[in-house]
Amino acid sequence: MLGRLNHVAIAVPDLAAATAVYRDTLGAKVTQPQTLPEHGVTVVFIDTVNTKIELLEPLGENSPIAAFLEKNPAGGMHHICYEVDDIIVSRDRLKAAGARILGDGDPKIGAHGKPVLFLHPKDFLGTLVELEQA
């Protein structure tokens, strides 16, 4: 079911400062910020040779990232994203196996313009998992 690692997401309190660290200190190529109101975040992606790093900043106080940053004020790893061939088939298989899908269970369009779902971290060794249709 799992495809390649798409990205690792890091929640940050200040997207501009975090972008500068990756761009200026590590010499990384960083995308322009992208606002995703449906997900409550503003994101940038850092392209690496074999995957991406996503930096997430809360978009408003109701953002799930704002709640994460209350517990982790300096920021930290938020989730890991894997690609799947068919997100609906994957969702149904996971639900049948007892995994919890966050939200209403229906895929939403993510930052790459593709359907995504999030899986409950308690079902995946304490890690929030995002699935993205390849």
TrEMBL record:
<dbReference type="InterPro" id="IPR029068">
    <property type="entry name" value="Glyas_Bleomycin-R_OHBP_Dase"/>
</dbReference>
<dbReference type="InterPro" id="IPR017515">
    <property type="entry name" value="MeMalonyl-CoA_epimerase"/>
</dbReference>
<keyword id="KW-0413">Isomerase</keyword>
<keyword id="KW-0170">Cobalt</keyword>
<dbReference type="GO" id="GO:0046872">
    <property type="term" value="F:metal ion binding"/>
</dbReference>
<dbReference type="GO" id="GO:0004493">
    <property type="term" value="F:methylmalonyl-CoA epimerase activity"/>
</dbReference>
<dbReference type="InterPro" id="IPR051785">
    <property type="entry name" value="MMCE/EMCE_epimerase"/>
</dbReference>
<keyword id="KW-0479">Metal-binding</keyword>
<comment type="similarity">
    <text>Belongs to the methylmalonyl-CoA epimerase family.</text>
</comment>
<protein>
    <recommendedName>
        <fullName>methylmalonyl-CoA epimerase</fullName>
        <ecNumber>5.1.99.1</ecNumber>
    </recommendedName>
</protein>
<dbReference type="Pfam" id="PF13669">
    <property type="entry name" value="Glyoxalase_4"/>
</dbReference>
<dbReference type="GO" id="GO:0046491">
    <property type="term" value="P:L-methylmalonyl-CoA metabolic process"/>
</dbReference>
<feature type="domain" description="VOC">
    <location>
        <begin position="4"/>
        <end position="134"/>
    </location>
</feature>
<dbReference type="InterPro" id="IPR037523">
    <property type="entry name" value="VOC_core"/>
</dbReference>
